[in-house]
Amino acid sequence: MAVTLLMMLALAKSFGFIGEQVRDSRIQVDLSSELRDITTRISDETSRCTVALTPNNGWHDQGGYFLYHEGPLTDATATIMRASDGDTIAPDSRLGDIDDFLAFTAVASGDNWFTGKVPRYLLELKEQQAHGTLPTFDATSAFDPVVIRSRFAEIIYFISPEYERASLAPGNVPLSIDVDGDTNFATGGAGSENGYPDRLRIHRRVLLIRPDLNQSVLTGATTQTINGVDFTNMRRGSLPQASVGGGPAFLRADAWPTAVAAPAAGATVNAGAIVADAWLYGMGAVHHQCDLSLRRVLNTDPAAPAAHGLPTQNVAANSLTDLSLPHNRFGHVRVPAGVAGIPAGFTSMPLLGLERSATVLDAVTIPGSTRLAPPGAPSAGPVVTPRILSGFLRHELVLGNDLTHIPNQSDVWGEGRLSEDVLTNNVLAFDIRIFDPDAVAIGSSTGLFVGPSDAGYREVIREIVLTSPTPLLTSRGQYVDLAYGVLAGGSVRGWQERPIHRLSTANDPVIPVANLNAQTFLVSPFSGIEIFPGPPIQFQLKPSLFRSGKIFANNAGQVGFFQPTFDTYTSHYERDGFWQRVPAGCAGTCWTVGEPTGALYDLAADGLGTAIEFGADSVGERETLPPFQSRPESIRVTVRLENPGNRQLRQSSVILRSTQ
């Protein structure tokens, strides 16, 4: 009996082991299949991008755009910021780059056109326009979702946490769902144990490009009621808006920059909303109400010249030409005066409307440890990546997560859209990197070979710069995080508390500007660094980052925001009739409010030269430049997934190559 029991136990163990192996194999197959689907979709859609990966340095705009934004977190952040001293295994190192953003315009293949939903009344108005009569539908069916198609679309890939619904109520700090028992990740308050959200999703939003839906059916009437539906005729070339029973307007953005506070008459936001932040969330309800690529219409009212160029509440459907302009794209905002150091009389250039940065970047010194985590405040010097506008996409722009606005006529246009744009969950990384031909991988004195994306990169550079040894081995040409030389969570940031845009600290010998090793390792087309080091920040970073408005520092040298972005960009700002310039004493291009005066604007399109330029309409006369002016050979997108049951990881990458 004893032998039999032992044999049965051994057999049970064997079957249990085999079962675990079969389960793990199935999980690996499922993860591989899911990764293959995602990367194949990204590869297919980006291959049909309507533009080449060529920044506009003064030529005519391409039809559409390609944009890649690099958040401050990288694949090395968790290892650098969270690896506990003495641990041989750092579990948090499985967490990768989770705050990158990819957007572009694409053309459909063959008859496989893009599809999306719009309210029925838009199509009814379009049909009735051809016949010169008014629509006859009723208020009940006017807002029913109708599926339409388009050959062109604006496609956006981004990561967002899975939030606790109650935390999305107006005025609350958004919290991710807590699955490991620590303090929830918060975009604006105390972070979780490791500073990362517990559940992440990759979202894919497809917005149809249908400029033919811009209507002016009700010509001559400012307001028209048809069977109980109020249709307000907007400016020519804009979408018609509607409201029912005096409720919030449909397809109408919030007043810029401040919404009407609830419960006032005409309010569009729920009580408790931070109405002063309407410039951030003002398009949230609109993007829930249809799957069209939409923009705010800029103010051109002759009766209000002081407000010319400011965003209005009216929205219009984009064309490919419209989307070449950054301020017309999904998720883009302009920061008003008084926020992030923007002086009176200016707004920022277009930026992504993002939450605050992940709280891992706010970590404090670990008790009993000699390793110092990142500074919580820029007291030691200017920190390039502030918390503002450097995290995940604003939650009001994620389908189903907009609880800030008053509910719409039907739940199908509000919370009912939750998860419609989710591509996959259980994500550990959505990492986008650009190929930098001059980025250097270095061999250290200990025999390690590290590149710009490896956690020990800064320490190897520091060793070489301070002790002047000859590198054992170097290799040029690496896939890097955009602006890797100055990212708050990047490998060059290092372990110790120091200003992140400088290699040296007060305790280190001062590294002279002429140090060839530092220049060799940290100055490259996509590092973000122009010269290393330099006293004021505007002389250290690439001038094009400031000319594009992606970084702004006030007259005290404090950085208000920083969004390193590769963008095909536009030359429109050189002939748009507005003055984009640097405010006095500041660093970074801003948008001057109102009609410009004098003859100092749009000089790069007047056909004339100036006393300080060698030719007419030269680059020195331009008001703006693309954030990065070099054309990349390729861009790599990596997706990393985890099975929460057995903690298995799989990742896969796809290469996006430039066509020109």
What features would you describe in this structure?
The chain is an alpha+beta fold and 660 residues long. Helices cover 16% and strands 21% of the residues. The chain has 10 helices and 25 strands. It has a 6-stranded antiparallel β-sheet, covered by helices on one side. Strands 16, 17, 18, 24 and 25 form a 5-stranded antiparallel β-sheet that branches. Strands 7-8-9 form a 3-stranded antiparallel β-sheet, with no helix packed on it. It is globular, with a radius of gyration of 26 Å. The chain starts with a helix and ends with a strand. The model is unreliable at 217-223, 364-383 and 494-514 (pLDDT under 50).
Beta-strand content estimate: 15-25%
- Global structural class: alpha+beta
Could you tell me the radius of gyration in angstroms?
26 Å
**Terminal CA distance:** 77 Å
Number of helices: 10
Overall average pLDDT: 80
User: Percent helix among the residues?
Assistant: 10-25%
**Low-confidence stretches at least 5 residues in length (pLDDT < 50)?**
217-223, 364-383, 494-514
Largest sheet: 6 strands, antiparallel
